[in-house]
Amino acid sequence: MMDAVAQVLIVVVVAVVAAGIAVVLRRRDVDAPEQGPSWAVPVQLDRADFDRPDAPWLVTVFSSATCLSCQGTWAKAQLLASDAVAVQEVEAIERKDLHDRYQVDAVPMVLVADATGAVARSFVGEPTATDLWAALAELRDPGTVPPRLHRPLTLPAR
Fold first, then answer.
1. pTM of the predicted protein model
2. Does the residue 118 lie in any domain?
3. If you write DSSP's letter for every residue of the chain in order, what string do you get?
4. Where in the sequence is the domain holding 110, given as residue range(s)?
């Protein structure tokens, strides 16, 4: 009879230990945070598709008329216009062809492209005026932006 009680006691102890180990492992197995959507960012533009293809730099704001943050983004981007920098808004309804061609499905999207059309910096969502200015300044004259303002601004394409 003692042997049967001892066997049951051993089974209960093993079950409790196994349950304890399962609880500890479950706490360590943290679920990955839920990821939001990601958008493709063009890496190359055909400068002939945009205003002033001869300008050394192009700042393109892909936008939508119904997007409030697009309005703020466009207002900030316009301040970058100069002889060396062409700035153009590409509104979704008016220029659906360009939104489709470059597969832009998130707005506002700001692309800073060089003379060859290579996208050197991009922003998905409304950037700060400082980030826009710093990105263009660093591209035009590397080393001009203080290190605390210079951070990676280009989002990788998916």
1. 0.70
2. yes
3. -HHHHHHHHHHHHHHHHHHHHHHHHHHHSPPPPPP-------SB--GGGSS-TTSSEEEEEEE-TT-HHHHHHHHHHHTT-SSSEEEEEEETTTTHHHHHHTT--SSSEEEEE-TT-BEEEEEES---HHHHHHHHHHHHSTT-S-TTT----PPPP-
4. 47-140
